[in-house]
Amino acid sequence: MAGTRALLMLENFVDGKFLPCDSYLDSYDPSTGEVYCRVPDSGKAEVAAAVAAARAAFPGWSARSPQERSQVLLRLADLLEQSLEEFAVAESRDQGKTITLARTLDIPRSVQNFRFFASSILHHTSECTQMDHAGCLHYTVREPVGIAGLISPWNLPLYLLTWKIAPAIAAGNTVIAKPSELTSVTAWMLCQLLQKAGVPPGVVNIVFGTGPRVGEALVSHPEVPVISFTGSQPTAERITQLSAPHCKKLSLELGGKNPAIIFEDANLEECVPTTVRSSFANQGEICLCTSRIFVQKSIYSEFLKKFVEATRMWKVGSPTDPSASMGALISKAHLEKVRRYVKIARAEGARVLCGEGVDRLSLPPGNRAGYFMLPTVITDIKDESRCMKEEIFGPVTCVVPFDSEEEVVKRANSVQYGLAATVWSSNVGRVHRVAKKLQSGLVWTNCWLIRELNLPFGGMKSSGVGREGAKDSYEFFTESKTITIKH
Ligand SMILES: NC(=O)c1ccc[n+]([C@@H]2O[C@H](COP(=O)([O-])OP(=O)(O)OC[C@H]3O[C@@H](n4cnc5c(N)ncnc54)[C@H](O)[C@@H]3O)[C@@H](O)[C@H]2O)c1
Ligand SMILES: N/C(=C\C=C\C=O)C(=O)O
């Protein structure tokens, strides 16, 4: 129940205007378990209105020069940066993450997304070849695709939404974005900045609501030729089915079951704290989080001891507590799902070394109905176990020993996913060799989550289709045309 405090009421943003909706969904504060906000439960009608607005805005926006569009993106970045604290507080409340993380990662990166694509759009070149024997010159031009549908998840709400909006509009498209119904607030706050930044009405439209209703209406709409999706593999399958009759262009950024491979010559001083962070940052709710840690046998006991000690130092607490490293998980249902995985591991004979069911969670009274869980380390677990195969997307990581380089590469590659891996060794030859053999779109060696936005981001196998980044996002959000001039 809502209690006595007024609820935050969100509205769709279409054609530069905030519009109420016929029905609304409750949105929970994960750190208290209370409803604090109501989100439009949009459907086909709202998508149709957004398509009409995006269609009308397209000719004007796509005709602007990249320099003009770049200026608008830069103003948006500045406005967002000026409101950084307000956005960080809102993101933390809506998602459950700590304010510290929202303040240092989510919102700064959202600002950077606009600045980065404002700059990169100015530097693309096209191809040209000559065919002297035929008296011909050939060259390519790139044009925006049209209306882009952008669907994003709840774990890094504004970070991942702006990672799509910025390249799409920089390239001259108009967009209809659908954030996760669980975390809609910062997207709605962003709408308030669009007009101030000079984004013309209809260029960015945001429709809120659930996947099956508004998400499917967007994906199925014949006038939306391009869909950029970040989320889970089952949803990607559904989106692929719905897009197929229209031959839509699809970008799919999906889940992971990311290995960390720790060799005996790793610098444990750096490896242990970074692997704790790569396992549990954002409550383990990052598609790039480590969830299978392979440690070479000779250092296995030493690593395990240090890793468990360092994990126990991670404080779970109110997202507003500056000393907390982890906040609340996104929802009650998700918390239950993550806990179930720990139960399954136990039933399969694995050992839980710390966290769920072993240590006591201590929370302030106001947070006791929130969706909290301790960071949990599991060992003595088989590679075939569900916790070693399936994406848990929570604060649970498994540690297992290995003998040889060849063996660990094979085991690391033995899952359906291929998103991100980390490799820890001071042998540079080994680092290159192993990185090359891993079936993974991203390999971080002796570090984690250092992002270079110019370069391709994305996964192999069930972790996705396509890549995002300066060149990749530009190519995705534009169509190429080859022109031949006979002279
Ligand atoms: N590879 C990446 O960059 C990346 C980044 C973040 C999250 N993820 C993945 O996302 C998943 C967690 O996010 P989630 O639970 O929000 O995923 P999800 O697939 O349930 O939802 C993602 C988005 O899709 C929408 N959606 C759901 N069903 C839909 C449908 N039938 N048609 C259209 N849209 C629909 C949701 O409303 C939401 O906006 C994890 O698997 C995680 O690994 C991947
Ligand atoms: N897309 C990116 C990160 C995705 C994280 C998933 O949870 C990025 O850093 O660009």
Automatic annotation (TrEMBL):
Enzyme's top EC category: oxidoreductase
GO cellular component: cytoplasm
EC number of this enzyme: 1.2.1.32
Places the protein is found: Cytoplasm
Keyword Cell division: no
SUPFAM superfamilies for the chain: ALDH-like
Catalytic reaction equation(s): 2-aminomuconate 6-semialdehyde + NAD(+) + H2O = (2Z,4E)-2-aminomuconate + NADH + 2 H(+)
Coarse class of the protein's main subcellular location: cytoplasm
Keyword NAD among UniProt keywords: yes
GO biological process: 9-cis-retinoic acid biosynthetic process; retinal metabolic process
Metabolic or biological pathway, per its Swiss-Prot or TrEMBL entry: Amino-acid degradation; L-kynurenine degradation
Active site (record annotation): 253
Domain of life of the source: Eukaryota
Pfam family, one: Aldedh
A GO term, aspect molecular function: aminomuconate-semialdehyde dehydrogenase activity
Keywords, comma-separated and alphabetical: Cytoplasm, NAD, Oxidoreductase
Ranges where the Aldehyde dehydrogenase domain occurs: 24-483
Function: Catalyzes the NAD-dependent oxidation of 2-aminomuconic semialdehyde of the kynurenine metabolic pathway in L-tryptophan degradation.
Family named by the database record: Belongs to the aldehyde dehydrogenase family.
Protein name: 2-aminomuconic semialdehyde dehydrogenase
Native source organism of the sequence: Equus asinus
Lineage: Eukaryota, Metazoa, Chordata, Craniata, Vertebrata
Gene: ALDH8A1
